[in-house]
Amino acid sequence: MADKDVVQALEESFRKFAMHGDTKATGNEMSGKNFAKLCKDCKIIDGKNITTTDVDISFSKSKDRSSRLISFHQFQNALQDLSRKRFHGHEEEQALEEIQKLVAGKFPIISGVTKTVSDGAVKRLTDSTKYTGQHRGRFDENGKGKGKAGREDVPTNSGYVSAYKGRGTYDKKVKEDN
Question: Which region is the signal sequence (predicted)?
């Protein structure tokens, strides 16, 4: 059996991967999608001995029939099943230790996140120093937006119609008409 530190590191990795991408997840159970991500990120899937299909089969074997999630204990069983295939030349306990080393202490890799574009047209269009006319007044000398203070006509919401420019002229018009 693995020592206490390895089991704690495995459980920490299990919780991190179980909660990855799911705001409602508690970290006590892991989905098949997150198990496949764990296997990919921890390099359990090597393309020769272990493929994504092997990972899905191992997950299905380890979970309860009616469930879509696995607990930490079932996770350990799935890793044991995969260790036999991944390290087929080793003894069973040594293979399990090797696969636990691959997983212990690992966290989800966030890849494919969209990066901001700052070249060509985007840079030219978002450079506030090149703005002219009315839009120039909406930014300070450092290029930071002034918000509502940068607008010339800030609505006061005090008239019959918001932003009415002839505010206070109604009484004058009524007197002139009479």
Answer: none
